[in-house]
Amino acid sequence: MNALASGKGRVGLMLAGWAILVAISAVILYSAQQKSRSEIEDRFGLRAELTADFITTYASDFLRQERLVAERSLSGETPSNQTFDLVATSLDSEAAVLLDADGKALRVAPRDPEVIGTDLADEYEHLEAAVGGTPAVSNVVPSAAKGIGVVGFATPFKSNDGLRVFSAGFDIRSTPLARYLANAAAVKPNGAYLVDESGVVLATNDADARQSAELPATIAPFANRDTMGSYAESDDFVISQPIDGTPWQLLMTTPESFLFATVSGSSRVIPWLVWLGFAALGLLSVWLFSRLTQRRKALLELNERLERQANIDSLTGVANRRRMEREIKREIKRAERDGTSLSMLAVDIDYFKDINDTSGHAMGDDVLRSVADGLGATLRDTDVLGRWGGDEFLIALPGIDAAGSAAVAQRLLERVRATPFMHDDGVVSVTISIGCAAWKDESPESLVHRADQALYVAKEGGRDRFEVAGAAELHTQA
User: Fold this and answer.
1) Helix or strand or coil: residue 434?
2) In whole angstroms, what is the distance from residue 271 CA to residue 123 CA?
3) How far apart are the first and last CA of the chain?
């Protein structure tokens, strides 16, 4: 009897232990599913946030580049039509205007004499804001000259005659921003839509919406709303993200059944069936732990990929502009702390636009990759190479003074010049121009600006050469 009682006691204890473990496992399973759903939502939201941040950076960087071009080329006397057309063409714009401080048109591209002298600031909100001193981006508006639909980037700048405003207009669908947006939601059936305040689609990975420039009916109710979640009359999960500094909005969508596939339907029911069917909690616990571990690992890997996407230029594999800005600030702080030298090189591919125009953008992309590889192979491990935008690269050279930067620039010129670019149609000789600037206890913006100015002088001097800012005796004609 004692043995029987003892056996029953052990069974009771085992049953009690099993019941406790089953209850604990049920709680763990439920919490894990809820947490996984929340993590999936947060992950999708983070993707939209990073995409919106990239678009914001793209717009602000372009306005900054536009201002530099305008100050460099349009700040003297009223430029000729030929000069203005050249500036507009250099930015690949489809339309452009130059206004005086009162908002009246000084130059317009395409040319239209009837527009000259017209007060355009009264007709366009973004031009009015720029005349007031604030850079602005527009919705889709008709261009001043031909009335074609464009998005305008307007920036004020100082000239010899006071404030002027330069605005370049683009069809966003033909810009690098459109290609980025297509890749931001590359996995079907995910959708990404960049729209203006009127709901006009500026760029998207949806071929139908790209053709019609209209949002799908199931997505349209989310325009001009800051929200994340489901729409009652649709199966889509939608995130609406405003783009800072613009009147634009990013909408990212995916079917709920696709987004929550791992925590709904059979994926939600099967663990409970397994939990009910297994008497051995150990096997069930191992199975659940394994699933949770795999999910967490997948999330970590996805986070790492996104972190790389946020810091590495996807085309060339070097640091992107955002990371380069951080690296420049870090190197300047190190130079201030250690009292060491620091130089900056601004590198631009000669006649890159001609390569794109004659051989296509695919060829241009190959040239960008080839030049980036050549630059990286010539630099030290401690040097920092990044793509600043378009076909321009920046290189930070820690511990290098003006004379040393000239030597490095010469090696880079020779490396690129001695490496012909091979493609299907034959061999293309690619050259670069370089601007060098040694740090002089200044801000990152000032250092980059001086390197850019030196680059401009190098290009004006005939290309395939370098120029050292403020040190003409170090200049070398390549």
Assistant:
1) strand
2) 62
3) 104
395 falls within a domain: yes
The answer, yes or no, to whether residue 22 has pLDDT greater than 80, is no
Give the pLDDT confidence of 429-464 residue by residue, as tens digits: 899 999 999 999 999 999 999 999 999 999 999 999
Q: Are residues 264 and 254 in the same domain?
A: no
Look up residue 420 and give its DSSP letter.
P
Residue range 101-118, pLDDT digits in tens: 999 999 999 998 999 999
Would you say the pTM of this structure is higher than 0.85? no
Note whether residue 315 is domain-resident. Answer: no
The reply to whether 345 and 457 lie within a common domain is yes
Mark whether 108 and 237 lie in a shared domain: no
Q: Is residue 65 part of a domain?
A: no
Q: Provide the domain limits for residue 142.
A: 74-170
Contacts of 414 (CB under 8 A, 6+ apart): 478
169: which strand partners? 95, 152
The SS3 of residue 78 is coil
Percent of the chain past pLDDT 70, that is, above it, reads: 76
Quick one: pLDDT at residue 172? Answer: 85
220 and 297 part of one domain: no
**Which value, to the nearest 10 degrees, does the dihedral of the CA atoms of residues 257, 258, 262, 264 take?**
0
Q: Look up the CATH number of the domain holding residue 195.
A: 3.30.450.20
